[in-house]
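User: quick one, fold this
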Amino acid sequence: MSIGQITTLLRGGIIQVLLLAGPLLFSALIVGLVVAILQATTSIQEQTLTFVPKIIAILTVLALLGGWMFSSLEDYTVQLFKMIPSMAR
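Assistant:
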């Protein structure tokens, strides 16, 4: 296995992680920003007010994109398993 193949595997893994985690993190970021602005304008400093909306947003994104995420991860895993015989040479 050459350095180029290892680099390609690592790059593919990083891209896969970013594709799967990106929508979840982005939704939590947006909800957190909206709640923080709301808290700053109303002077309400409640800890659970930031936590619960983020959890709801993450669960909503998982419900909407979960099927795509699992199929994307399945495709990547099958691709890796198909590469195993060529790595053993």
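User: anything notable?
Assistant: The CA atoms of residues 31 and 54 lie 6 Å apart.
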